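Case 674 in the screening queue. Each case pairs one protein sequence with one candidate compound; here the compound is 2-(butylsulfanyl)adenosine. For every case the pipeline is the same: read the inputs, emit a complex structure as tokens, and attach any notable structural observations.

Predict complex for case 674.
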Amino acid sequence: MSKSQAVQRLAELRSQLQHHAHRYYVLDDPIISDAEYDHLFRELLEMEEQYPELVTPDSPSQRVGGEPLAAFAEAAHSLPMLSLDNIFAADELYDFEERIRRRLNSSEQLTWTAEPKIDGLAVELIYEHGLLIEGSTRGNGVVGENITANLRTVRNIPLRLNGAELPERLAVRGEVYLARRDFAALNQQRAEQEEPLFANPRNAAAGSLRQLDPKVTAARPLSFFVYGIADTAAVPCRSMAELFPWLRSLGLPVCPLVKICGTLAEVEEQYQRLQQLRHGLDYEIDGMVVKVNNFSLHERLGSTARAPRWAAAWKFPAEEAEAVMSGVEFQVGRTGAVTPVAVLEPVSIGGATVRRAALHNQEEIRRKGLMIGDTVLVRRAGDVIPEVVRPLVERRNGSEQPVVFPKECPVCQQPLHRPEGEAVTRCRNIQCPAQRLQRIIWFAGKSGLDIEGLGPKNVEKLLDAGLIADIPDIFRLDKERLAALDGWGEKSADKLLQAVEKAKQTTLAKLLAALGIRHVGETTAELLAERFPSLDQFMRATQEQLLAVDGIGGQTAAAMREYCTNPESCQLVSRLLELGLTVQAVEKTPSGGQLSGMVFLFTGTLSSMSRAEAEQRVKDLGGDAVSSISKKVTHLVAGEKAGSKLKKAAELGITVLDEQAFLQMTNAQRVSVC
Ligand code: IVH
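Case 674 output:
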């Protein structure tokens, strides 16, 4: 391919990828499969590698995050990023209108926007001739931090705006947030890696945006909603009602719940509606922002030093409450981690009764200075487990007692260990009944084999009744004894046995996640199952082979080796297989695989595997392998002493990879940036 052809193809790829990313991330309406997207993305990466001088700042490849920074530079805002005045009740909404009317000295009908108040982080994005050139935090409102590299990694922030008539310079403002689903996945991953959990999506978003290494930010699936612009004179719109569709047409994501209201009664209605919708939304909102619709009125109303006079935030009632912490329980998890949990006198928060709250770990209790008997502030944020924010020290009466972290496991009484520098205290007795219970719960639960009807309560019941003592017993359950359980019967027994039978046919990924190996949750298990075709190969994998799997670090590899070489775990696995557990080979549909649509040809000698193995690997990943060169071939892998095929491939413009590049490509995690 000539350079001018490359320039053209790259432009095509960028625009196609931008279009599909917009459909996926902004419109939530993709028209191509992930595999097709990844295929285009790979082509882009390969071409950019070949022509680094043709990489543009709006290329989707630039979302992966560049080099780490030593510190953030300052970024001055052209116009201050103001705050908002708060209103707390409907009558204050009418006062707000009254103040506006007085200032305008008018009784004309006002129109409004009612917008969800997104609970994230305010940012400003500057586009010059449609190209994203700078992104910053709010900072003190006048000067923020330049976090352009990090904001480029946010998938639904366009790197280039659509449209022919774009302002020379456009400063848009909005909120970066972490969707609840993404927050839950991130915390689950962190739990698997035994890293401290984020308390709520907002903290997670803030922590992710303020990373000096943009690659860390790129790995966090942040999102963005635009809610305004710095300078209304810069846009071809006269009101918020015109602005939102215009911003949308440029490719910017506008929250779908923004509403234009003709009266304050409608604004009030929208407030009630948002409050109802609140917990079902995939992003957290902490109130509603009411804005005057008309821009000419914004100008006439102006701002105070703190906030514009044409907007106000109507917060939702706080989801916090005071409660007496009557004790602290220490729960032992499936890996032996001991977690303190606050026992509270029941309190209603946001419509739910809260009796327990997370305390995370020993260090957290010390840092917050909590004592038993304290009145504490408890916060419930969305679906997240309620947590103790802080003690209300002024409420103490002297009867409070310090929280004493036990030295022995509260269940099996064996000594607890807390390795230096680690936050987690652990019971190391694998036979500890608490660990066993949790292991069974995990094994049968959603992250494991997902056995219907065998949730935590029933696992406990079966254990208490002596029907099971460990995981393999699930596959030896006796119908009569099950049916004789309190409240059961033949029907329930049959139902459970059927579910167990069904769960026996499983996949390697599910089984690996179910075993409860430290650091191995669903995500890691998927990666492993992609790399190791059978359970046997996984159990025999060397540290090097494990480390070669992209996304698996030293700690995880070591934990897996420890598991696979431990006689007790080996015995568990063999017993499961003896009892009829079958690991099915996953049908790799060509369209879903990482190499789908690609045709590989191998030439020369490979050093790390036979040609047949390499071809199998390609097929496993959804690609095709052929033995002769033709135009169909997309990748030629050249080993030692590659011959004439290499020359022919060059003539046909086929991508040539060496063995190392092939290994990297086939080990690589799916590329999911856009
Ligand atoms: S307008 C000058 N609209 O709330 C007006 N703000 O408490 C500036 N926020 O710092 C803000 N959703 O980060 C506006 N739909 C929305 C918003 C919103 C969330 C945040 C914003 C601001 C804070 C003010």
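Case 674 observations:
- Residues 668-674 have pLDDT under 50 and may be disordered.
- Residues 82-84, 115, 117-118, 122, 138, 175, 227-228, 289, 308, 311, 313 surround 2-(butylsulfanyl)adenosine (CB under 6 Å).
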